[in-house]
Design a protein that fits this description.
By secondary structure, this protein is α/β, with parallel strands linked by helices. It is about 40% helix and about 15% strand. It has a single domain, classed as TIM Barrel (Alpha-Beta Barrel). The strands form three sheets. It has an eight-stranded parallel barrel, surrounded by four helices. It has a two-stranded antiparallel ribbon with strand order 6-7.
Length: about 280
């Protein structure tokens, strides 16, 4: 259930065009979720074993937008930031975003993101422990400053949720505390739809309550009983309905992520791609 979150703690979108994101949503901003993206944690082991070969296979399946993640070989899987940018570009993909840790090397992380050509830096682990309203307010202050620093280099800062953010303290959902105390100009939200539904919450409620705050998604289906990720259509996420409400969320890009699979990672990537290509609504 918590494999990716635990990994992060210990280590420190094919074209969809008009049939996935409505024209009205695409017209709402300069960019749009025209392409299906992939969070590389899905192929974490494969990237460590053969980074170039894995990217070639991903491109061959049809993924166009790439989001990296922390690994044993750093944020760029042993590549230099500019090197990873070039390889992705040569394969017809864009290194759009990266999951990183917030720490004392934040400016260095920003500088590397600039070198890689990516637009987003996403933190997915709270910098300080504590499931309290006070800690989340303090974290919001940290994120506001981190986002302001990133914006000076034309990098957009964001936060990615897991399930713990939906716990309550003093009758308040902690994720709401983070949303209410971060400056939308400096801090965006990358909503992991799978982790939201596991907590019994509905992403659509957040799109209604905080419209436009979620320019990035992790599009991930979840087995509600076993509480782990599965291929699209096999779990509790209504993928079609989520995409129908993309405009409310303010989505610009989404990244497919699957943390567990019964076959190979590439089998699940191909399955999910085919599912999205054939999705009708």
């Amino acid at each position: 259930m918590n494999s990716r979150r635990n990994f992060l703690k210990t280590t420190g979108a094919l074209v969809v065009g008009s049939y996935l994101i409505p024209d009205t949503a695409r017209a709402a901003s300069r960019k749009s979720a025209r392409e299906i993206g992939l969070q590389l944690y899905t192929v974490r082991n494969e990237m460590l074993q053969d980074n170039v070969g894995t990217l070639k296979k991903i491109a061959g399946i049809g993924y166009k937008e790439i989001e990296s993640a922390s690994s044993e070989k750093g944020y760029y899987y042993g590549f230099k930031p500019a090197e990873m940018k070039k390889i992705c570009t040569d394969l017809g993909m864009t290194l759009r975003s990266g999951h990183v840790h917030y720490d004392d090397n934040w400016q260095q992380t920003i500088d590397q993101a600039v070198e890689s050509g990516q637009e987003y830096l996403i933190v997915s682990v709270m910098p300080e422990k504590g499931q309290t309203v006070d800690n989340y307010k303090h974290t919001a202050e940290i994120f506001n400053k981190a986002g302001e620093a990133a914006k000076k280099s034309n990098i957009t800062f964001g936060y990615h949720n897991h399930d713990s953010e939906f716990e309550k303290d003093k009758g308040k959902v902690l994720y709401d505390v983070l949303l209410e105390n971060t400056n939308p100009d400096f801090v965006k939200m990358e909503m992991d739809l799978g982790w939201v539904i596991i907590t019994g919450n509905n992403p659509l409620d957040y799109f209604e309550k905080y419209p436009g705050r979620f320019p990035l998604w992790h599009l991930k289906d979840m087995d509600m009983k076993e509480k782990h990720s599965v291929e699209f259509g096999k779990g509790g996420l209504d993928v079609k309905k989520m995409l129908e409400n993309a405009k409310k969320a303010g989505i610009l890009y989404f990244f497919v992520e699957q943390e567990e699979y019964t076959g190979t990672a590439f089998d699940c990537l191909a399955y999910n791609m085919n599912y999205l290509k054939n999705l009708k609504y």
